[in-house]
Design brief:
Strand content: 25-35%
Radius of gyration: 22 Å
Helix content: 10-25%
Strand order of the largest sheet: 15-16-17-20-22-21-23
Structural class: alpha+beta
Number of helices: 7
Largest sheet: 7 strands, mixed
């Protein structure tokens, strides 16, 4: 057996040489001149949180350097409209993010990033170019893709099988942006060099030191984000498609909640040196914000929940169902209080306020967990509530109290055209929530669409809880005889595609697989007035 462990030096050379001169077409062109002296753009470029007139850009280098960003509206960069700079220092692991502002609406924006060595400012890196499109200010048609779950369950980068192929498939759809519903990494999931598949063949992962054990240190959490950026499909996608990102549990460890101590959960079997969930979450949050192109929150450091206004047709509400929740207990609380928190009172009040103030035709609620699927904290013993549904049917209890309050508010406030998008359960499905078939009926009907994993093990299906009346309209999950934790080689990797017509406002939602097959779709007409 050959173990493909990449040393830090070799990893830098492998990723850096591919990323240094990568342009918009994603093709690496190695350079020779003074290569050993120059700063290196180590993991490609990214953009995110794009609005009508702004967007975040990101890159990482290999030494203390100043990142300069040039902005143009053509890929020739014949006319450079503006430039910004920010320093990449050891404190941020040499990552740097910059907010590009005062951009034209509905416009392709090209950005070119270089790094200047702070010790010798005349020494510059080769440039790397990326692009994104700003949100429209008029009723131009909009499209985007969504999914979740990257590099989970030990399924890493097998280059012989094409790497993380679903990212290349999503790019073929030419979306305006990518909504990543969380589990952007699996910090608790080590990557082994080889995994034997049911057909007798081997899945051969690229392996790095930081992915050889569950992450505990800040460097190890950072290393998980670096691992995904080794993949050429991910880097090529990031250079062309901006990302709206949220997090869930695996950015820290499986099923965590604030205040949890590790000895009471499945991680007692691992080598975690600390039992403090919040300490690990603090390190994970820092790495997440360093490596993801989301805007920093002025009101609360490290905050993930936010609204992305994407023109008159669409507002996206990015939730955080992880950081403010109560314990993953039995979910039997009949009154609302800290044990029943899911979003938490502050985030729930924010969401109500922002939904009420939204003037967009469609309000997409990006949830890192589904509403009506039963997700156990301990699947083996079917114990504990990990998501909102507590698996009992009947009136709302536990975290369902918060969901019921929100759905009732949406109805009585006259808020139209809410659609929930999520991932987490590692299969794809469409759910129609019908109050006429629900135990709790004080809400208007709505859709929830589930899609994932984008590159992880495939599981499911999960049971539906009848409290809010979800009706299963479509599902694609492993057949019983296939078992669980199917590798990406099985082809059961999924993402969703949303297209909103500018003239009519009709939203078409399609569920797709890694080979770009449209498995199921539906058209939703907006309710006006």
């Amino acid at each position: 057996m050959t173990i493909r462990m990449l040393s830090r030096r070799r990893l830098l050379a492998t990723v850096g040489s591919a990323a240094v001169a990568t342009g918009i077409d994603g093709i690496a062109r190695p350079y020779l001149s003074r290569a050993a002296d120059r700063p290196v753009i180590t993991h490609g470029v990214q953009s995110g949180d794009v609005s009508v007139d702004s967007g975040m850009v990101w890159a990482r280098t290999d030494r203390p350097s100043r990142m300069t960003v040039e902005v143009a509206t053509t890929d020739s960069f014949k006319t450079i409209h503006r430039g910004v700079f920010v320093d990449a220092l050891p404190e941020s692991d040499f990552t740097a993010k910059a907010l590009l502002e005062n951009l034209p609406a509905g416009q392709d924006v090209f950005y070119r990033i270089r790094f200047a060595d702070l010790a010798e400012p005349t020494i510059l890196s080769e440039p790397t170019t990326g692009r994104f499109r700003t949100a429209p200010s008029d009723r131009r048609s909009v499209s985007f893709v969504w999914s979740g779950d990257t590099a989970g369950q030990g399924w890493g980068i097998d280059e012989a099988r094409g790497g993380m192929r679903a990212y290349a498939t999503m790019l073929k759809n030419r979306p305006d942006f990518f909504l990543h519903n969380g589990d952007t990494i699996y910090a608790d999931g080590p990557i082994a060099a080889e995994v034997k598949l049911p057909d007798g063949t081997l899945w051969k992962n690229i392996v790095t030191e930081d992915k050889s054990k569950p992450a505990e240190t800040l460097a190890e959490f950072r290393g998980n984000f670096k691992y995904n950026l080794i993949d050429r499909n991910v880097r090529g996608f990031n250079a062309e498609v901006p990302m709206l990102v949220q997090w869930d549990d695996h950015e820290v460890y499986n099923n965590w909640w604030p205040g949890e101590t590790l000895p009471v959960n499945e991680h007692r079997k691992t080598s975690y040196k600390s039992s403090n969930a919040l300490l690990l979450a603090a390190r994970a949050s820092r790495a997440f914000h360093e490596y993801m192109p989301l805007r920093p929150a002025a009101a609360e450091a490290g905050r993930v929940y936010r609204k992305i206004a994407y023109g008159p047709l669409l507002d996206v509400f990015m939730l955080d169902m992880r950081s403010y929740r109560g314990p993953n207990g039995e979910g039997k609380e009949e009154s609302y209080g800290p044990p029943a928190y899911f979003l938490g009172p502050q985030q729930l009040a924010w969401l109500k306020r922002e939904l009420m103030n939204s003037r967009a035709t469609w309000k997409v609620i990006a949830a890192d967990m589904p509403l009506g699927l039963v997700v156990y904290h301990d699947f083996a013993n079917k114990w504990g509530v990990e998501a909102a549904a507590q698996g009992m049917g009947g009136p709302p209890r536990g975290r369902e109290l918060e969901v019921a309050d929100l759905l009732s508010f949406v109805k009585h406030a006259g808020i139209r055209n809410t659609v929930w998008l999520t991932a987490d359960v590692h299969y794809t499905a469409a759910h129609y929530y019908d109050p006429n078939k629900a135990a709790f009926q004080d809400f208007e009907p709505f859709w929830e669409f589930v899609s994932g994993p984008i590159h992880a093990g495939t599981f499911g299906p999960n049971d539906l809880d009848s409290t809010f009346g979800p009706q299963l309209m479509y599902i694609k999950a492993p057949a019983k005889e296939q078992g669980q934790n199917l590798s990406p080689a099985s082809g059961l990797q999924f993402f969703g595609h949303v297209a909103i017509e500018g003239e009519t406002g009709i939203m078409t939602v399609s569920l797709k697989d890694v080979d770009d097959r449209a498995l199921w779709s539906t058209k939703l007409e907006p309710k006006m007035g």
